[in-house]
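BUG: 3D viewer hangs when loading the predicted structure for this chain

Environment: internal workstation, default settings.
Expected: structure renders.
Actual: progress bar stalls at 90%.

Input used:
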Amino acid sequence: MSAAPGPPPPPAYRGRFAPSPTGPLHFGSLLAALASFCDARAAGGSWLLRIEDVDEPRSRIGAEVAIVDGLARYGFAWDGTVVRQSERGALYEDALARLRESGAVYACACTRRELETAPVGVAGERVYPGTCRDGIRAGGGLRAGLAQRVRVNAQIVTFTDLLLGPQRQDLARDVGDFVVRRADGLFAYQLAVVVDDAAQGVTAIVRGADLLASTPRQIHLQHLLGLPTPAYLHVPVAINAAGEKLSKQTQARVLPSDPLPALLAAWHFLGQRAPETRPETAAAFLAYAVRAWSRARLPPVPMLPAPRGY
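Structure tokens produced before the viewer hung:
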């Protein structure tokens, strides 16, 4: 009599780095790239590159080329071809149709001005008060020119971040029904990223802690769409002297042409063990970084001051 089959093996690790082409790479971008790359490679997994250009008005001409060239110059090598959200609209349309069929979405005619008095939730966004939940006063129906929102019904979403530990969010209280397609017809980040991660088989998401508050919405969408939930690890984000996250909007400096000082600064920021001897090339440093990577050494905080010069 043969033994009963055991449980299937866990899927192979698949990580990703997913920058938006709104400008060149900066130190904050490098932190996410380095952490996600090392976590994937240290696990013997693959590392994908996805350009998140779903918000087309914010995308800048030439930014994608600058990002791809910058990553290559810094020694990063990704698996497969570069994926662009701007080419994946059919997948998002299909996901929205599935949400519509299940009654999970509804049309919303509210403008930003009309929501200015709504309270601000934990994610720093206005909590939607449910104005259009039971229909639009001037006519209903899912028609062009209206945003599409996902209903949340007192869902308490919990997950354990691999660095920051147990997390809990009351979606109705802290976020409210949220947009998955904007009134201008563009798909929202929350829907696009969930569809892409599932389609690409991503098993672990390593990114900045500024996206921690978005994770419960993404898990809610995964449940509604019957998609797997990856593991999440949110590393500290770098902030400037004013306490602002380094970003294109806060005029973060472009990464220098010489990669080694920036890579070493990012490695130190992430709390990792410094190499005994200084590597001579970016490739040599990354080879060391993959061997030495330790989640346990990551600072368990959401933000830290950026090093001087970045």
